[in-house]
């Protein structure tokens, strides 16, 4: 009888241990998915959806978007673009979708209704009609601006322990992502920037570059104009001979130093040797990233 009871307790303990670690979400924090877009008015835009995990459970969703304005110079006819100071959520009633668009409720109100629906029913539960209008959430008549796909992506990021953050400045979209293990260790950390295609200044319709700075690698050609190189092979040789680093190499020095030494609020005061790029935006997006991870990183 004693042996049977012992086996029972061992089995129960194993079941309990498994149950405590059975959550798909091994790391707490806010996991953000984003999409660089072009608004219908021809300006830049970024849409975000985040999911917050606490003690292995989803406790919150957040939909938001930052838009921009454009102005044409009367003399040169060139277009300039500027990120709006506030996001759609931050604008609140001043977004004026009710006042000028005749909507049944302001954008942030409808966004919150979608978030609540996700919390209650899951990210796969929201549907749209043939016009891409969300059609099964009470009090919501807005179109799906990429929210549904981003919500699913955010959940997948949470399962991976992959934190992301974005920061808007100039006509650039700064980004950073970090994978954190269940033990709170940084597995990988990367900085990146998506920039405006120069054709935007003459076309009046904003265009993003096809590749980010990291994706461009040596093709970003930060020193190419002064190198006198005829091709990328010669350019790389010139960089080595002149002790110069391309943008992605300098960005990686910043993130490598943080992985090695840890993040701190005054990290920008200790820029690694060899980094000559302007770092304000990079540390701004990193600060947001580590804010999302909270105490998950040890």
Task: Give a written overview of the molecule.
The protein has 298 residues and is α+β, with helices and mostly antiparallel strands. It has one domain: Sufe protein. Chain: A, CATH 3.90.1010.20. The chain is 36% helix and 22% strand. The chain contains eleven helices and eight strands.
Read across the widest sheet, the strand sequence of neighbours is 1-2-3
Uncertain spans, ≥5 residues at pLDDT below 50? 1-21
Q: Bin the helical content.
A: 25-40%
Distance between the termini: 46 Å
CATH topology: Sufe protein. Chain: A
Q: What is the percentage of strand-forming residues?
A: 15-25%
Layout of helices and strands, plus pairs?
Layout: H1 2-20, E1 29-38, E2 44-54, E3 57-66, E4 68-72, E5 79-83, H2 88-91, H3 97-101, H4 107-121, H5 147-160, E6 162-169, E7 172-180, E8 186-194, H6 200-203, H7 213-216, H8 224-227, H9 232-241, H10 247-261, H11 280-293
Antiparallel strand pairs: 1-2, 2-3, 4-5, 6-7, 7-8
Summary of the model, kept short:
The chain has one domain (2-296): Sufe protein. Chain: A (Alpha-Beta Complex). It has eleven helices and eight strands. It has helices at 2-20, 88-91, 97-101, 107-121, 147-160, 200-203, 213-216, 224-227, 232-241, 247-261, 280-293, and strands at residues 29-38, 44-54, 57-66, 68-72, 79-83, 162-169, 172-180, 186-194.
Short key terms for the protein model shown above:
36% helix; 8 strands; three-stranded antiparallel sheet; disordered N terminus; alpha+beta; Sufe protein. Chain: A; 298 residues
